[in-house]
Amino acid sequence: MRAFERSLADFPAPSSEALAVCARLVDQIAADIAAAGGRLRFDHYMQRALYAPGLGYYAAGSRKFGAGGDFTTAPELSPLFSRCLARASAPVLAALGGGDVLEFGAGTGTMAAGVLAELARLDCLPGRYRILDASAELRERQRATLAAKVPALLDRVEWLDALPPAGSLRGVVLGNELLDAMPVRRFRIGADGPQELYVRGDAATGFELVAGPADAGCRAAVAAIEAAVGPLAEGYESEWNPALPAWFASLGETLAAGAAILIDYGHPRRAYYHPSRARGTFLCHYRHRAHDDALVWPGLQDLTAHVDFTAVADAALAAGFEVAGYCAQAWFLFGCGLEALLAEVDPEDLPRHVEAVRQVKLLTLPGEMGERFQAIGLTKGIGLRLPAFALRDERGRL
Questions:
Q1: Does residue 66 surpass a pLDDT of 50?
Q2: Cα 259 from Cα 13, distance rounded (Å)
Q3: Spatial separation of the C-alpha atoms in residues 132 and 103, rounded to whole Å
Q4: Res. 12 pLDDT band, cuts 50 70 90
Q5: Whole-prediction pTM value?
């Protein structure tokens, strides 16, 4: 058994078609490794595994979301989540006198449909609902979902290949489970200081993670972490997202006025790099199973890392945003009126009411998504306190 097939022997086997796609991607990554001199930085590997055109996890046609995929997101769990996001967006659109919504990585389109439907109920529709998603297959699924659920609003939806021109966007930016899918660099603390983790190998022998010298960027990242949390012990492993500053700089150039609301699983920096997380937060998702071997079946599993929300706040501030709120997902949803939305469900309709209560528990209980997921609100060019963070605002933890 080749090394990149080694640890999922007891998992559901991919189809022969999926394995053929995987083999083509393995060949590409092996060529990248050879071109890089025998080892590839982990973020470059992750970029290929997730986004290689036609072959990467988010660029190929395999099913990713829901019971038949690899994971389930909050909008797929409950329509109440999308309704809450709409209610978080409405005050921003109202303060601007209109504007657009831009959603990153819209998945199946379920959240877009739910947000649009609720904004219509609130009489606060955006001029356009813009979706930035690189996957042609997901775009088609999004279009089909929107056509089925909000056909009268489909003409407001626009798909983008890149961010709108600088200064052209006024409105709300939404990102749910977006930042966790950005490629990360990984490090280990050696006897003489930080080392970087690389991928090496080929299609015949498979891939493996190896430690190598840390460059200036890696040393600076680890130094910044240790300045916040104290010295990291020898053998400690973790990761950081090197793309955040540039990503927020681009978003800051695009957004003239409005707010960004980002929800993801993660922690403030001191919790992220706590000694109890001595192997980092990196995880893979395959058929609703989580494990930590990123080198298994490249392109057929999701690769993620938790979000350092302190790094998010720092990058956003440097890009001209204000941090307008931060809290656990449960408090964010309650701040958006989740309890009132639940109260709208007729208790006499017992099956529907029981299902709605079940959904609320999944979204808000600490052992479910309520505390594992965090929400951050960022504003730019608009003097507005975001009501979604009125019940609980924990910016001081950042």
A1: no
A2: 43
A3: 6
A4: confident
A5: 0.94
